[in-house]
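User: structure tokens for this one?
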Amino acid sequence: LNGDKVSGDSFFVSGSDDGDIAFWDLNGKIRVKLVSKAHKFGVSGLSSSLDGLTLVSIGLDGLCKVWSGRGFRLISTLKSNDCPLSCVEFHPEKDFVLLGDWRGKIKVWDLTTCKRKAILQDNKGSIQDLKMSMDGQKIASLDISGTLCIFEGTVGFLLNVISLGQVGLSLSFSQNQTLYVGLLDGQIQSW
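Assistant:
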């Protein structure tokens, strides 16, 4: 089960292994909409824009679906490739979304034009997590082999590659731009 807040604190969206997406009203504590088989295979990630007006779902079917945060209707479908997608992140300032896949690639899509803007690739395996700093200046990706890649956020130049020596599970940027990495053995590293 994956989930993310939509439209402030009043709505939540969840995705399941069978490809269904459910939209929930947190105030009324009810499901307001269910989209059966929104993805052919499981939903692997969900993310919403900062204003909550746009939501994206990604799946093991390699599709990225763009939804309205109000009314919860499908706006468009981006065919990233035939490779399963594993993680998704919204750009904090632009109408862009970052998609991580099982081949270690990060694809940057413009949601206004529905066109791919860039492909970032230096990870060795499936992307486990990716995050963009709050100022949009850095992109961090973590793959299944424990490789952490840091890219410049505007044009996508590779800034650094760090081998963590073990499997990393999650990433998070703090407000002061410190990057935290959660590791399989329970450690948290900061960069």
